[in-house]
Amino acid sequence: MLILKRLFDVTASLLLMALFSWLFILIALMIRLDSKGPVFFVQIRVGRHGKSFPMLKFRTMYDGTERKWQAPSKEGALSYKFQDQGDDRITPLGRILRRSSLDELPQLWNVLRGQMSLVGPRPEIPEMVALYPDYAHARHRMRPGITGLAQVMGRGDLTLAETLRWDMEYCKNWTIGLDFKIIWKTLSAVLRRRGAY
């Protein structure tokens, strides 16, 4: 079954990259006009089997401001929420890209390379993974996804504990059918901009 998942990932990512190539170019031009800095934001994330990889996004923050982020304490990690509506590091265009989820489009390249899947637990930075309770590392049995069960169940409105609970449920109950349901619900969540800041 995982072979079918990978086959779908490769086929769909190639198709989507070709279909939205014009949008890639347009967004890249808009980013260059909006603020100084590179078009793409590259960040190390933890993927399948705990291996790190460089994840791509369209840059949505002012260049260099990601270094201002501080990881929560071990004690407060499970109640931590990943997105902040008042984050002043985000550019005006970046807010639009985030709310529409268009900043995630470059991750189709990560999918094509086999580092990610269209659907799976979202990959996290090593600093956050280091704060996971032991049971949560089982989520790394699956390739991380552009979207996932946690994203359609609340996205940035969820605490880390809630996100991990949905991730573990996905890994435990994964089927191809579940992936298609999540993709369908993702389209609805993106249109409603639920949990996107």
From TrEMBL:
<dbReference type="InterPro" id="IPR003362">
    <property type="entry name" value="Bact_transf"/>
</dbReference>
<keyword id="KW-0808">Transferase</keyword>
<dbReference type="Pfam" id="PF02397">
    <property type="entry name" value="Bac_transf"/>
</dbReference>
<protein>
    <submittedName>
        <fullName>Sugar transferase</fullName>
    </submittedName>
</protein>
<keyword id="KW-0472">Membrane</keyword>
<keyword id="KW-1133">Transmembrane helix</keyword>
<comment type="similarity">
    <text>Belongs to the bacterial sugar transferase family.</text>
</comment>
<dbReference type="GO" id="GO:0016780">
    <property type="term" value="F:phosphotransferase activity, for other substituted phosphate groups"/>
</dbReference>
<feature type="transmembrane region" description="Helical">
    <location>
        <begin position="12"/>
        <end position="31"/>
    </location>
</feature>
<feature type="domain" description="Bacterial sugar transferase">
    <location>
        <begin position="5"/>
        <end position="191"/>
    </location>
</feature>
<keyword id="KW-0812">Transmembrane</keyword>
